[in-house]
Amino acid sequence: MKRLLSGNEAVAWGAWESGVRVAAAYPGTPSTEILETFAPMPDIYAEWTPNEKVALDVAVGAAYAGSRAMAVMKHVGLNVAADSYFYASMTGMEAGLVIVNADDPFMHSSQNEQDNRRYAKFARVPCLEPSDSQEARDLVGTALDISEQFDTPVLLRLTTRTSHSYSIVDLKGTRPPQSQAEKPSYRIDTAKYVMVPGNARRRHPIVEERIGKLAEYAETFPYNRMELKDRSLGIVSDGVAYQYARQVFPEASILKLGMTYPVPARLLRQFASQVKRLIVIEELDPFIEEEIRLLGIPVEGKSIFPICGELDQQIVRECAIEAGLLPSSARVPVAQPDKGLLPPRPPILCPGCPHRGVFYVTNKLKLVVNGDIGCYTLAFLPPLGALHTCGCMGGSIGVAHGVAKAGIAERNVAVIGDSTFFHTGIPALLNVAYNRSNTITIILDNRTTAMTGRQENPGTGRTLQGSETVQVEFEALARAMGIQRVHTVDPYNLKEVEAALGDCLAADEPAVIIARRECALMPEARKTWLPLRVDEERCNGCGLCFRVGCPAIVKSDVLDAKTGKPKARIDPLLCIGCEICAQVCARQAILFRAQLAEEEGGA
Amino acid sequence: MLKVDFLLAGVGGQGTILASDVLAAVGLHTGHDVKKSEVHGMAQRGGSVTSHVRWGDKVYSPLVGRGEADFFLAFEKLEALRHIEMLRPGGIVLVNDYTIPPLSVSSGSDEYPDDERIRAILGAVTPNYYLVPGTTLAEELGNARVNNIVILGALSHFLADVPPEAWLEAIRGRVPSRFLDLNQQAFLAGKETMDKLHTARNCG
Questions:
Q1: Would you call B68 helix, strand, or coil by DSSP?
Q2: pLDDT in tens, A376-393
Q3: Once rounded to an integer, what is the mean pLDDT over residues B70-96?
Q4: Predicted TM-score (pTM) of this structure
Q5: What stretch(es) of chain A map to CATH 3.40.50.970?
Q6: Contact call for A332 and B67, based on CB within 8 A
Q7: In terms of CATH architecture, what is B3-203?
Q8: pLDDT per residue as tens digits for the range A563-592
């Protein structure tokens, strides 16, 4: 059956059709939809783990126990999982293990744009790269076969464009039959699976030998495909870059690599010998280019095409014209209207976002705020401008502790979301408790993993596959770590947030504030949406409410007679009635829900 | 070799992605190779959203290049200006005549371009620009959210080879059944409006 699927959906189908039984992941753009698509499929087990390291350990365990397994993560997730990734390369497994890794060139939704093909070489693990959804589907099964044939984990590297582009996929729609009676068995082999130095020393040569065999396998790997056409130009390419290369150079000879590590040395030499000029078109690092250079073959790549950001046909074309590979007549005419400066439209905290209440108060108290990865990172933007650092998942608490230990005059806080706290915040909070800094950790508990599209997590009481489960109690957890000063507040209640922060600031000890309020986009929260209204008589256009940074508060066309400033107006299509602005207004000009209800009752 | 490239742009929450899903399905239904590309994650939260749809005999890149879009559907006026150079000079751009002020405009630090400037910028790229009252028509039908389907209806005016059933079939596959009538009305309203606009333009 033919369907239009995203690369992510195609990976889920490929996993199901090739018999993956256990899959684990932590949500992360651009990889999230893989497990969301896989989880409802029959005869499989899938889970969200607290972080990518746990996900990979879970998948390794399943593969040790004889089940085909898949771990899924975004590029930076593999940094978190790196420890597990390296031992998995050393031990190999009993059944196929595919690690699906989605890089994010251009950092559409990431803090850096590392090229994870480097990890393949780093750990001597083969790396497969699809260039469209059909290949994304096909290469999952191929990865599992390679994993079993060579006793190695296999990295399946997607990028944002292969993950989030849709193309036509021919699906089988079936899954290999499984014997229901027979449970997978656990084969004990301590020399292979206990990585103490003595065993590891014996495993390392096996790993080196394995990558040599894989390099041989790569020579005839069917997804390393030579398309010989005009011999004046030869292009080596991989992933989505192949699509740009083929579009811009319809007549050139192309060697498309479906396996980018290890590279096929003989095939590359053969290709190079048949073309006049050899170039590599690849996104991010000069990875293939360096491998070709190591073979002693003259090649160009990053001297022509950029190392930063994504490629597209326009960039490839322009760079090729610049390098004399194409005539300037190949340029596509682009209109250049004089647009002047257009107002930007950056992503913003949604109207009614509970995080806004916390940031309004940290601003009011002029606190230094160390942030983390999640929707709340957006609080760094004006007009809030309330967040001062953000590096990686779980980084906030350790950074805040370090800032405190450096002895600055200002007090500083860490803000971290519920899911991010589970991910890597817990050990950092333990460190604050153990090493006694007066760090105030604010856990923004919006009862979901919001940024990636509202996934379940250990605080929500539900699993990926919809079962009910336990819910972590943040308060008890903080106390168990030895933190006595623990407050729980409603971030929609500014006085409550300010009182809790005031109490923590007055004390010189570790403190935790749990700001608990469901994400305003959750179905339950949506049922309570009610737009507020500005009393135009009372509003004098002072502009205090604009500092809340809510997109629902806009300047009205009506000017105040005295001040001459525009009055505030609330967009009823955007406002959900969180009442944060109503608490901020000094003239009580924004009506609370209760006042609106009273008016309605009176009318 | 046949190729039709579409760029869609709007503000997160306006239904840009759904419209591109419909467009991709129509392409598939009419026998083309189809690719579609969009960005998820941070870009969706009230920010500027784009989606690329390509039909052809054989489509390589999943992205529409600058200056390569044959049709540009903008669900908001400022977003039309932001991405207008993606349009092939002389290509067709349909703009929902609707304003969503970004935060910097509502807080007073930036100014939203007026209609005169909008027309001047669009006109510098193509004479074939149309301001379609998508949200107004959708509101008249009782639900502003179907503004995206109104604009698709307007687009269908220019794709005479595509049978109306292909559109309705694609819409049917993507909206809840209780909203099907509403969406069909929205589609037809968009098409009729464009028929009239285009006739008026050609006669005027």
A1: coil
A2: 999 999 889 999 999 999
A3: 97
A4: 0.96
A5: 2-176+188-218, 355-525
A6: yes
A7: 3-Layer(aba) Sandwich (3.40)
A8: 999 999 998 888 999 999 999 999 999 999
Is the pLDDT confidence value at A603 over 60?
no
Q: Does residue B82 sit at the A interface (CB-CB below 8 Å)?
A: yes
Cβ pair A291, A314 in contact under 8 A: no
Q: Give the pLDDT of residue A67.
A: 95
CA distance B88 to chain A (A): 7
- Tens digit of pLDDT for each residue in A13-59? 999 999 999 999 999 999 999 999 999 999 999 999 999 999 999 99
> Taking CB atoms and an 8 Å limit, are B42 and A383 in contact across chains?
no
Q: Does residue B199 sit at the A interface (CB-CB below 8 Å)?
A: no
Cα A448 from Cα A456, distance rounded (Å): 6
| CATH class given for the domain over A225-330 | alpha beta
Conformational region of residue A106, where left means phi above 0, alpha means psi within -120 to 50, and beta covers everything else: left
Q: Rounded to a whole number, what is the distance in Å from the CA of A161 to chain B's nearest CA?
A: 7
Rounded-to-integer distance, Cα A205 and Cα B159, Å:
63
Q: Which pLDDT tens digit goes with each residue over A188-210?
A: 999 999 999 999 999 999 999 99
Residues of B in contact with A554 (CB under 8 A): 101, 106
Q: A355-525 belongs to which CATH class?
A: alpha beta
Interface confidence (ipTM) of the complex: 0.95
pLDDT at B1: 66
CATH superfamily of A2-176+188-218: Thiamin diphosphate (ThDP)-binding fold, Pyr/PP domains (3.40.50.970)
Q: Where are the alpha helices (DSSP H) in A345-483?
A: 355-364, 395-405, 418-420, 426-434, 474-480
* Cross-chain Cβ contact B45/A546 below 8 Å: no
Distance between CA atoms of A356 and A517, rounded to whole angstroms? 11
Secondary structure of A340-366 in HEC code, one letter for each residue = CCCCCCCCCCCCCCCHHHHHHHHHHCC
Residues of A in contact with B87 (CB under 8 A): 335
Q: Which CATH number fits domain A529-602: 3.40.1170.60, 2.60.40.10, 3.60.60.20, 3.30.70.20?
A: 3.30.70.20
How many angstroms away from the CA of B134 is the closest CA of chain A? Answer: 17
